[in-house]
Design goal:
253 residues, two-stranded antiparallel ribbon
Length: 253
């Protein structure tokens, strides 16, 4: 039930969804001039605020952990935990890398540099249709193609979310008695990932990657000109903020 509700919540957390709802309410539900006016003002405010590149970048920079490569490049970890969520399937169930696949490349890099000994790939299918091919199995084959020794790859392909990945890790990492673990995932996803693994008793280090916002000199255009792409991107930060809060309330972190 929690898994299904999370998918519904993701749809409702999109500012674009809010705009569509306001349009429909204004057109078909609100009859009084007062409420039509209020819905129009709300529509304009949401459209302007959530399409502002400066505000989005500021929020993301404050949410994402800092880059950690210089801190860990000379360290050593027994297991690197690679969390899934970086691929997609086409209609024929052929899997492809998505734009968040930097975490895969960084995992290979850390393995090649000797920072991690073993890669633990965790993740099944994030789709409601659980009969589709598992992402972890695809990533295992890709890791081997990129030169990772198959004996150094552990695969868990049943978990549907971060919490389940942390639970499943007990069955895989625990039996190898690993006490030095590095979590590798997107920077936007790292605060929740770190918290849920530490709740399970792991003394984990983190390696955030796939940054969606970095510090740069903002131009007047970024501050004043609306950006439709930014309007779409807010849903991912909303998902993490609400997900973190939900995990906190339910005792998962």
């Amino acid at each position: 039930m929690f898994f299904i509700l999370s998918k519904v919540l993701l749809f409702l957390l999109q500012p674009l969804t809010w705009l569509v709802i306001l349009l429909l309410l204004n057109r078909f539900y609100f009859k009084a001039p007062k409420w039509k006016r209020v819905s129009k003002i709300a529509f304009i405010c949401i459209a302007v605020l959530f399409s502002n590149g400066f505000l989005y970048n500021l929020a993301m920079i404050n949410w994402q952990p800092a880059q950690r490569f210089d801190e860990i490049k000379n360290k050593h970890y027994q297991v690197g935990v690679l969390l899934c969520g970086m691929t997609y399937l086409d209609k024929d169930d052929v899997r492809y890398f998505a734009t968040t696949s930097d975490r895969f490349l960084q995992t290979v890099r850390l393995y090649k540099l000797g920072v991690i000994d073993t890669v633990f790939v965790s993740g099944g299918s994030g789709s409601l249709d659980q009969s589709r091919p598992r992402e972890a199995d695809f990533l295992r084959n890709q890791l081997i193609t990129f030169g990772v020794d198959q004996s150094r790859i552990l695969v868990e392909n049943q978990s549907r979310n971060t919490y389940e990945s942390a639970l499943k890790a007990n069955d895989y990492i625990g039996r190898h008695k690993a006490d030095s673990i590095l979590i590798i995932t997107s920077a936007i996803h790292m605060p929740r990932s770190r918290a849920v693994f530490r709740k399970q008793g792991y003394n984990t280090a983190v390696y955030p990657c796939n940054y969606t916002a970095v510090k740069f000199k903002m131009s007047l255009k970024d501050i004043l000109i609306p950006n439709p792409e930014v309007l779409m991107n807010w849903q991912y930060l909303m998902k993490e903020l609400v997900g973190y809060g939900t995990y906190k309330i339910t005792g998962k972190i």
